[in-house]
Amino acid sequence: MSEKVVLSVAAHGDDAEFSAGGTLAKLAGDGCDVYLAIATDNDRGSFRLSNEELRDIARSEAEAAAAALGAKGVFMLGHSDGHLCDVKRTVLRGQVMRLVRQLKADVIFSWDPFAPFEDHPDHRAIAWATSDATSFSHLPLYHPEHLAQGLEPHYVTEWYWYSKADWKTNKLVDISDTMDEKLEALYSYQCQMVLTVDEFLIQARAAGVDESRLADIDPTDYRPWIDAGMRRVNGNLGAKIGATYAEAFRYECVEAPALFEDAF
Ligand SMILES: [Zn+2]
To answer: Whole domain around residue 102: which residue ranges?
Structure first.
């Protein structure tokens, strides 16, 4: 699928990399132009740093992750972590639609607006904004301010919605050749990776895991834990298709209207 433009729209730095990093790296390697949009500045994602400290490093971490994936650029939408639900839905939709029109994006990656049991309000908010924006970006009367600024309506043709559970998964992408790029991209988000291991320890202790198994885990030395965790998750998905590693999606693409089915 060379020459397509791919736009990943995430709520937080690390969302796309955890759920779709291997697939995004694979598409970039195949010649697609891949861009990352991140709606918030991750400024609540730590037990150790202040909001200001987190905001200061959000862009540089995202740019390092984009480089690891072979992406061409990063767009920060500038909202506060955990407060995406306070952003007026049409404002967020307009921001995503503007990027779709500006980049002429063919392929979209994001959280699934229809996935059940999603507990993060930012994930739900960006999922709906992205679904709404990419369903109507070809209609000129939606956000006409974009057209007044020289952009054109644009028709999106493919969607890869992250599939956290088995909910409607219909596409497993073999990422065996890009697992290393996915991990490097994740490691770029140092604060988020430390947070991930910090939370892993809290969860393990709350669940009654014996302290002797946890005492030596240093969250600042996160690579072995992220490596082991992702190889387990993506390895289990890969086993379903006979691959070493895979990522899972609810995939949609434009199909010919039923009236023209016999033309193909
Ligand atoms: Zn997130």
So the answer is: 5-263
